[in-house]
Amino acid sequence: MFANWWEALPRDEMVKLKLFDQSNGGHGPGGPVESSAVAAFRPELVQVDRAHDLPEPPDLSPVMPYYLKKATAEDWPGYSGKVSEVTPEKGRQIVQLSEDRLVQLVKNWFGHSAEPGSW
Known about the structure:
Blueprint: H1 11-17, H2 32-41, H3 88-111
Helix pairs in contact: 2-3
């Protein structure tokens, strides 16, 4: 089995939680979801005071698979979205929700070990 922790936090459900003021629920490379999760474990590594909010990344999730071409990465700061919304508290909520869902996925997987498919 292969699972990503952020896939346990679908966009629609993140939007419903209202942790971040972005139409994609805070998703995006180095965005509020990822940065808050890091801040939950190592807050000293997340220095949002050194960054500024960026426009949210395009919402491409309803159109899978997708391909997004960047002409250059020279001007990309290494993060996306509204980093001013990043907090360790939000990160702890995100990590707990992701952990709960991954544990349930593994339990479902073990409970249906003889059946191929998506659990």
